[in-house]
Amino acid sequence: MIINTRSSDERKVTMVAITIIMYISSFFVPFVIIASIHSMYFFKREYWFFETPPSSYIAFMIGMLLSAVLFTLYLAAAWKWESRKLGIALLAMQIITIPVYIGSVDNYYYATGEGIFFNKLAGYGLKKYAWEDMERVKVVYRHSNGSVRLDQYKFTTKDGVVVSIPYTSRFAESQWKIDGVIKANKLTVSDNYDNPIMD
Hints:
Keywords: Membrane, Transmembrane, Transmembrane helix. The protein is an alpha+beta fold.
């Protein structure tokens, strides 16, 4: 009986340590895990650029925090109320975090010579927006810290769907390819340089 109690207490201490680690690591681990998975399993050299949107990291962070909260409730149930069934139920609820993790990992976008491809956080599967289906593009500028900078390219398809691509360092490296496609497909180009978005 003493051995079982000690073993139970040791498990609780281990759970406390895991819970604390999850709370702390949730603020930086998502960046490491998401970046590693995307670079190893999703990125291909033929992509003009490959980006992970902030929503991917935020969703993974929420998943970790949710797991930590469920562990905390489990420990409270085990220590305060000594409810084994409630504790097991709370642990079983960890399954609800799985879709959050999967969705966050499966959230990205990239561009190739065929078009722009999005795998949105709330959607299912890869959505292709072909260059030939684009009708116009708006080059969006933002006024920040006393200067005007390029913020995003906002494409509109012939069906009226708006596809926004943030201007990042990776986008900048392939900007000449994007501009080339815009010219080749004779898209209508506009910008807001004279009236930029104000921060």
